[in-house]
Predict the structure.
Amino acid sequence: MPKISDKQREGRRRQILEAALACFSENGFHQTGMADIVKRSGLSHGAVYLYFASKDDLIEALADDRHRREAVLNSVAQGSSDPIDGLHALVRVYAAWLTDPAGEARRRVGIHGWAEALRNRRVRTGVVEGIDMPRALIVALVERAQHDGLIRRDLGADAIARTLVAIFQGFVLQKCWGEDFDVEACMATVGSVIDGFRTARPDVRRRTRA
Amino acid sequence: MPKISDKQREGRRRQILEAALACFSENGFHQTGMADIVKRSGLSHGAVYLYFASKDDLIEALADDRHRREAVLNSVAQGSSDPIDGLHALVRVYAAWLTDPAGEARRRVGIHGWAEALRNRRVRTGVVEGIDMPRALIVALVERAQHDGLIRRDLGADAIARTLVAIFQGFVLQKCWGEDFDVEACMATVGSVIDGFRTARPDVRRRTRA
Amino acid sequence: MPKISDKQREGRRRQILEAALACFSENGFHQTGMADIVKRSGLSHGAVYLYFASKDDLIEALADDRHRREAVLNSVAQGSSDPIDGLHALVRVYAAWLTDPAGEARRRVGIHGWAEALRNRRVRTGVVEGIDMPRALIVALVERAQHDGLIRRDLGADAIARTLVAIFQGFVLQKCWGEDFDVEACMATVGSVIDGFRTARPDVRRRTRA
Amino acid sequence: MPKISDKQREGRRRQILEAALACFSENGFHQTGMADIVKRSGLSHGAVYLYFASKDDLIEALADDRHRREAVLNSVAQGSSDPIDGLHALVRVYAAWLTDPAGEARRRVGIHGWAEALRNRRVRTGVVEGIDMPRALIVALVERAQHDGLIRRDLGADAIARTLVAIFQGFVLQKCWGEDFDVEACMATVGSVIDGFRTARPDVRRRTRA
DNA sequence: TATGAATGAGACTTCATTCAT
DNA sequence: AATGAATGAAGTCTCATTCAT
């Protein structure tokens, strides 16, 4: 087989990454053997190592999948002019991601990545960067809102951002463990949390998330 | 075979658990070898297996971290009569737990446990139960507050509880990864979130977090 | 099995080293698998790694077996007062070592070590040190002889030593390859080489190798 | 499939052999991968296998180093009429070969071949034949010298030949390992060794090494 | 009770060789 | 003739657990 096209190469990579994603999602990084991934990918041991230098390489490639996050944020970047609407939009986007059944494996692998981030610097960097992205977006929105007098100024924009991010992290955990996580209700609560950050004005309540 | 006293027995157990906690905290469950724990505990392989049937046994004993729940709940059991004060008290207790440097290892192991919970039913049960306890407490407080007209009735008590729990889960993650997690500011935000759940009344702002 | 005695420990080590010696002798370092050594030693994989950290460790332990050399030299250290007799004694000792059928494996492994020394610094150090020992002895003898006027002063003592050492290295090679290496005849020649280094005196011939 | 000329074919072969020589010289036969050779040769895996059936084929082609023998023998073929002069000439030729920096890789690969000869019959045959050639030449010279009364008759011609060959084998080893091998001094010693084989005559000293 | 040497299945990875293109 | 992606057996090494002492 002579030189493969970039497209084919990328296809193989994806094939392996998908197999790894499925395996890691089910058993975690360290309880998954390369043999599992090899079998699931339908390729041979050697072929897998042709595309990824090591199991760690595979872990890092998956733990830090920036792609998803970028996609998510891009869909919000074109957001509404009102910063608070922007926050609500962000919540909707994440809610959709949280609900998507196809993303279950990714969410589970994400959690494994959170643990792995504690002892693997490369993974941690990826994870933290992945979280800094939405955090920065939220900070920007909040600061704009504060500047416009829409959000209380006695709360740090960064703390608000971290809190919102934390909520989603916790939701991912609860959703992945539990069978009875009511996404709808929780999202309504998050909307209310956002509105709770507003400055106290008579017209506040009118805006409460549709 | 001189039988040892229950007290000694319990001491040995703790000795092993502490060693395991330290190891797991540093390297995760599956990257820690029994040999590491044995060495750190100062005992022998045989001795460790005398107290714990297997490595999984050890993992389960630690992942399901009864300590935190009990400490937290005990501290709040003496709760104030006002349910919203109760919520704020809960936040303070968690904030203290989150800040305690001695609890760092426990927090880290907790995160590893969250990942492990995805594939180990026993661990998951422990983790979920550990979370259901404060959640139930919050639900009770919120329902009482809603009954008293202090908290909006259009939000589910369970969703509120899950949201508050999620916030703390996310904070644990962010604190354990990051060097620049500002606990104070974030706690202020959580207080504000709780107040945001209040019914809209002119006197709301007065109550904001002690 | 509680703590093993030093004697037993040493026995196990020897057991493994002997198995390794046999395997390496037959197939060389890199064509011998740990499985071969494990099987031949009668122990388990794990047990072998309990005594040697790695295959390289094993290679180094064998490639540089200083013991043998020391033993050889000790038997000559108590040598005759006449330095030239000392050289002849050395030749006899090496001749005996070269002939000893029990040493065949060692000689073969030695040759593998010579090749390995080209790319493994640790092995090289061991090999070179092992050769420096007899070389230094020869240099000492030759210098004494030169001082006493028994050996020509126009030849470097070091060059003479290297030449004699080289002869033995070459003999080991030829003996291990060939089926028709006549040790006796070659040793007689070496004796004559030594005598050839003498100063030209009428009585020279009388001394020729007992 | 455009057939290529024999010239091109031979060029390719040499290209591969040179790459292999460099690799083997650095890392030995078994620590060198085909991939190393392929990369160094600038060709592809397939191409290499078009010229050599296997890695062993390559090893055999190099271990059995015909070059040296031929070069050496050709240089001496024009030998002087005096057999002892012939021996000295031989020494000079080998000394030159030993000193030639361009031959370093060949010498190193030669040593690897000596080890390989212990377990690979084909390689052994090549190596032994390679040594038998100069040995036979020396035997012929010595026998002629003995017949002419120039060399002592109590020493076997074959033993003398083996001894001289051994010296050079040892020198190759010592040179390849060491940084401080004094070729000049050692060669002087070899010359003296040859002269030491002479029959005892008053004029011996006059002849010492041209 | 306690020890720690021993086990052996299984982990990750490499690499000589092939063959579709 | 030439390519290089793919194969898969085999390599080295680890580690949870056991059991003779």
